[in-house]
Amino acid sequence: MNVVVCIKQVPDTETRIAIASDGRSVNTADVEWVVNPYDEYALEEALQIRDRTGEGEVVVLSMGQERAATAIRSCLAMGADRGMLLKTDTPFGDAYGTASALTAVLKEIEFDLLFFGKQAVDDDNAQVGPLVAQMLNLPCVTVVTKLELENGRARAHREVEGGLEIVETCLPAVFTAQKDLNQPRYASLKGIMTAKKKQIEEREAQLVDPKLEVVEMLKPPPRPAGRIVGEGKEAVPELVQLLKDEAKVI
Amino acid sequence: MDFTFTEEQKMLRETVKRFVDQEVRPLAQKIDEERNVPRDLIDKMAQLGFLGIVFPEKYGGVGAGEIGYCILLEELARACASTATMVGAHQSIGAMAIYLDGNEEQKQKYLVPLAKGEKIGAFALTEPNAGSDAAGLETTAVEDGDTYLLNGQKIYITNGSIADIVSVFAVTDKEKGVRGGISAFIVETDTPGFRVGHIEDKMGIRGSKTAELFFENVPVPKENLLGRKGFGFMTAMKTLDVGRLSLAAACIGAAKELIDLSTQHAKTRVQFGKPIAEQQAIKWMLAEMAADIFAMESLTYRAAWMRDEGMRITRESAIAKMFASEALDRIVDKAVQIHGGIGYMAEYPIERFYRDSRINRIFEGTNEIQRLVIAADILRKGGY
């Protein structure tokens, strides 16, 4: 099985995000960069499929700035066979533009499965996977929590509101990974040492005119102070009511 | 001159850090309380290559060199000194003796499974009457046909009770003493006559197993003589020369964790209407901690780099071990002070770090012995 995994380098989830002086982008000065966590589930699934079938290769594809090569290198350390970086200087490209650039390259690669994370944790768009599937005219299954392959077909479990949906598709197909899909491995130290010897092909991304423009970025409003609803048993019904209707947590 | 870590070294640190955050730190208190590093954790570390990071790939290792190894121990020691000690005794001294002085057959037979973490190693030098002074060794090895028969007792042997393979030092010629009378042997612990005695209860690093070992007519095949007969003292000293450097790296890890915990505490603990971090007394302590850490880090990694470049580091590793262990003592003391009462309570990690730190001035050669090693080098050269 040949598997391609598209990944994105994103700020570490623990990074405190600051808005840049232009008011419409993120200040990247003190940002630690990591592989988008959902993409790691996608990569792990790809590695398991390759190892189970014992054939084919796992290719990691990413569009990003020069530094995104580090993210690809981490994937190679986890066990991917080779990487491709589509270089761009645009910090946060719009999803359509990213999908177009990825599609241009994916048309040249033969694959059976194409994986994405279900969304990138920086812009939370969750668009690139389905857009690429559309552009390549391939079936697309999103938010996958379990994947079984048999006789050239795939059976996927996907998370839907309040339940589970099981779908079948022919291959090749596009899948976007949800976190229950598997438990991503740690890169072995040997994997890290050999990652340098693996190839990362760099190309300029073929950009199209952006369909989307970020107009302004704002910090979320500060959290309102907590309040005491009442005391003792009597307060419980109102608390439950508020948690349900106002906080919408239960 | 270039002080930056390579891309692999950075990635290695990130990976170890992530493993430590998810698999080691959550267990650290339990490891201390239950006095045991779980086998399951050892196996996970083995799978990722932690137990052979310093050895070349051809001997089952990772080939990350001394710098890679120091990074590993630094990150492990941020969370759990017991786990770092277990890995250190296995690799820095147990397996290292075989790497440095073993022949090719011995390396294939013993170093490979040790580096892969399939077997656990230990280093057995200390005895009731011999610690820093190897001349007091009483364990004997007497030729008997195709074997040497080992008799005697070793104490304070880290990993002693969990080891499969032990590098053992014994007297082969009492007359010659340390100058030609001590030999090193590779002993498999399932050999008849080998017995584990008492497991020590300790102030700190409680999860690491410190055991007493008994040898009663233990037959060790002649091919398991490690290095040349009579040169065992040299093997021991060479091994410790290298081994003690990673110990300095473990001190850096503990020190960084302590300054991080102290900073968080100082910024959130409010007294007299403001966080205590705004008090000059606290700032000075944090500044002194940072200065010590910068020095520890600089000299340890410089020595590690020298080792990877093939230079001799007898003096430098002694300086690193001495300085880093004493700096950690200063740092852990300040960390307790900044934390106040909560730093003294067992439910908070500072107390464990305080107990765990003290051993570093003692094991793998006391700091007094390190000073003798450093001074001997200065005097021999006639200056710095």
In short:
Chain A is an alpha/beta fold. Helices cover 27% and strands 26% of the residues of chain A. In chain A, helix 2 (68-78) crosses helix 5 (189-195).
Question: What do you see in this structure?
Answer:
- The complex is a heterodimer of chains A (250) and B (384).
- With 250 residues, chain A is α/β, with parallel strands linked by helices.
- Helix content of chain A is 27%, strand content 26%.
- Chain A has 6 helices and 11 strands.
- In chain A, strands 9-8-7-10-6-1-4-5-11 form a 9-stranded mixed beta sheet, with helices on both faces.
- In chain A, a hairpin with a 2-residue loop joins β8 (153-160) and β9 (163-170).
- In chain A, α2 (68-78) crosses α5 and α3 (95-106) crosses α4.
- Chain B is of the alpha+beta class.
- Helix content of chain B is 53%, strand content 15%.
- Chain B has helices at 7-24, 28-34, 39-48, 65-79, 81-101, 104-116, 232-268, 280-308, 314-339, 341-344, 349-357, 367-381; strands spanning 121-124, 140-144, 147-158, 165-171, 182-188, 194-199, 210-221, 225-226, 270-271, 274-275.
- In chain B, the strands form 3 sheets. In chain B, strands 1-4-5-8 form a 4-stranded mixed beta sheet. In chain B, strands 2-3-7-6 form a 4-stranded antiparallel beta sheet, with helices on one face.
- In chain B, a hairpin with a 2-residue loop joins β9 (270-271) and β10.
- The radius of gyration of chain B is 21 Å and the shape is globular.
- Chain B starts with 6 loop residues before the first helix and ends with a helix.
- Chain A binds chain B through residues 70, 73-74, 77, 186-190, 192-193, 195-196, and chain B through 7-8, 11-12, 14-15, 18-19, 47-50, 53, 57, 62-64, 68, 72.
